[in-house]
């Protein structure tokens, strides 16, 4: 899905120098605590993923990572002016009230445009890591699992540019900075016992860089002991050759379901039948469960034809949006090869009017589609346990990246 962000100015910082004092203190605390636990208990990181048997999973070790039941979540983007005071906890409470068992935290890094090699974090808009810790802990206090999804946004995209079309002049520099960005949050997520981590999202032009991706995934394995995935485009999921290095196949679901025809429920259900068969036939060749990383339709009359384009229409159609959710979950909710779903997305501000007659966005808040999401998310079960086996044995890291 195309992301647009035209903000620019002061407050940006390079990733290489953006290690804050609060995290240095946290690092010391966690290092001491980890050493103590190793010495006294001989165990590192007992983890639960939605119930079931606890597994001893030190970062990067070879052991089965099990998911008992599906991730049923809603994504929350985290790039807003004045982010330190943004009401994320309130939004998490709202997500928990929908029947979801997971929140997907979407956090950005920025590059100037598609040809730039520098990646940075805008401190005016992005929560500090200490703030992120509090947000993650609040989500867990509401019995929500957490998936962390870093994304890249372009500050001043040229014509037709988005993160799927980046082509930096210096790929080596870009990969070095992207790796620093990913590891920065992988450390934090491991310390906060986040259940799953996306190593990237919709970076189509990089997906043939197989060796670089495998190197990055290996580095993340050293510091993060949860499930790993990558979010591919619905029309590009066959391209990556590194799925075997991950635990889940991540893909968005922005398919053209109607070719301009009226999005009736019957038509939408029929549209998913061949798509589901095609996806599952391919999934069988990979052998990893599917995580639908972005699942959404804007409240527009064109939502079933061009769900990726939230600028397509200025005419609301809440029933079309609701029909899209109903048809999708009817097809997929009981599929045992699916590890979960992330609805795109929850509201980002308190002031925006999300009523059906006004709001053209993906946000299901205050729309009839939310009742459908809640009904399916509240269903028991939702698929067999999806068990994966990491392919690389590595040694846990003991310090933050510099």
SSE layout and pairings?
Layout lengths: L11 E3 L6 H21 L4 E2 L7 E2 L8 E3 L3 E7 L10 H10 L4 E10 L8 E3 L6 H13 L3 E10 L16 H21 L4 E6 L8 H14 L3 E6 L15 E5 L12 H22 L3 E6 L22 H15 L5 E6 L24 H10 L8 E3 L14
Parallel strand pairs: 5-6, 5-13, 6-8, 8-9, 9-10, 10-11, 11-12, 12-13
Antiparallel strand pairs: 1-7, 2-3, 4-14
Helix pairs in contact: 4-5, 6-7, 7-8
Number of structural domains: 1
Q: Whole-number average pLDDT?
A: 83
Structural class: alpha/beta
What is the CA-based Rg, rounded?
20 Å
Give the CATH level 1 class: Alpha Beta
Q: How many helical stretches?
A: 8
How many strand units? 14
Task: State the CATH topology.
Answer: TIM Barrel
Report how far apart the termini are: 32 Å
- Physical arrangement of strands within the biggest beta sheet: 5-6-8-9-10-11-12-13
Task: Estimate the global geometry from the Cα principal axes.
Answer: globular
For the largest beta-sheet, the strand count, sense and barrel status come to: 8 strands, parallel, barrel
Instruction: Identify the CATH homologous superfamily.
Output: Glycosidases
Parts with pLDDT < 50 across at least 5 consecutive residues: 2-14, 16-65, 382-402
Query: Helicity, in percent?
Result: 25-40%
Strand content: 15-25%
The CATH architecture term is Alpha-Beta Barrel
Note the quaternary state here: single chain
